[in-house]
Amino acid sequence: MVSRAPVPPPDRPRPRGPLSTPARAALLMLGSTLLFALMVIAIRLASESLHTFEIAFFRNFFGLAAALPLLLRPGRGFGFLRTAQLPRYFVRCLIGMLSMFCGFWAIGHLPLAQAVSLSYSTPIFVTIAAVLFLGEKVRARRWTAVALGFVGVLVILRPGTGEFTPGLLVAVAAAVLSGVVAIQIKELSRSEPADRIVVWTTLFWVPMSLLPALAVWEWPQGIVWLWVVAAGVLGTGGHMLWTRALKIGEVSALTPISFMQLPVVALFGWLLFGQTIDRWTAVGAFIILAANAYIAHREAQLARRARTHAPVEAAKPGE
Fold first, then answer.
1. Distance (Å, whole) CA 109 – CA 200
2. Tens of pLDDT along 253-305?
3. How far is CA 61 from each of CA 201, 234, 239, rounded to the nearest angstrom?
4. N-term to C-term CA, the chain
5. Cβ neighbours for 274, distance < 8 A, ≥ 6 positions apart
């Protein structure tokens, strides 16, 4: 009898460990980006038959329904909403509501690529607002990035040409107001958890958006209900994923992922509405995204220095 070498057992798949923190943050940001892109499409579809005020109300109403499970987590309940910051929430939500009206109008009435590209200018205005309201020091390199971002905005707007319309300024106004809101959220987050900010914001937004919606009220018909429900659920879901991504990941690494919203929206704009991106919008968007990427990179560097207690004065000249 011929002896045989023992046959090794077949390879078993090795158990994989959990995803690394950067990978989880990247997946959360990608999920957020896709949800926000789909929300934009839902808003555009709803805008074909509903007024902007109504779309904003339904987005907030169904967004609140999507956010309420945050209160059902063990140990929370309605006591989780207890806060001493209600006046600041009110002001933050009022400005945010105006920004939402402008942004939703732009999505419903401008080419989607233009509306989304101009919304990316928000970080530029955040930098300016941080200087004005928080007294942050911004050095030459970030001011250069801000100036570059403004160039990108002007390339898209093309003032003085036949392509310019006053409606484009509504999209810019939405970005400016969003920048102010971002600073307010930054201040609130020092004492308030992210989930409480989401819930209180939506609680305020529902009545704030209902009042103007009543003036133009018209019940959605047929499939339009799907679009307004989707806008609310997708918007709240995207916001939750976005806050969690930024909580565990580096802003400089996550910001480029958020830029994926533009090609996704552009693709759906082409498939559903026959829209294409003109070259000036594409060039302007690229300039704005490059400026945003550098601003995010610099803020991440400064945040790391602050965590290691490095003095700000140690930054190199011109930063």
1. 30
2. 777 788 889 899 999 999 999 998 889 999 999 999 999 888 887 777 766 77
3. 12, 12, 15
4. 80
5. none
C-alpha R_g of the chain: 23
Instruction: Establish how many alpha carbons lie within 13 A of residue 223's alpha carbon, considering only the half-sphere containing its beta carbon.
Output: 5
pLDDT at 15: 47
Domain boundaries, the chain: 23-213+220-308
Does 248 score more than 90 pLDDT? no
Nearest-angstrom CA–CA distance, 59 and 76: 25
Contact 128, 74 (CB under 8 A): no
Nearest-angstrom CA–CA distance, 212 and 58? 12
